[in-house]
Amino acid sequence: MTSDDPVAYECADNIARITLRRPPVNALSLDVIRAVVAALRRAADDADARVVVLASAIPKRFSAGLDLDILLGKSGAQIREFLQALYIDLYDAQYGLGKPSIAAVGGAARGGGMTMAVSCDVVLAAESATFGYPEIDVGVIPAIHYAHLPRIVGRHRAFELLFTGRVFSAAEARELGVVNRVVGDAELDAEVGRLATQFAGKSAAVLRMGRAAFMRQIDLDYRRSIASAVDDFCNVATSDEAQEGLRAFVEKRAPNW
Question: Hey, what's the signal peptide range on this chain (predicted)?
Answer without folding.
Answer: none
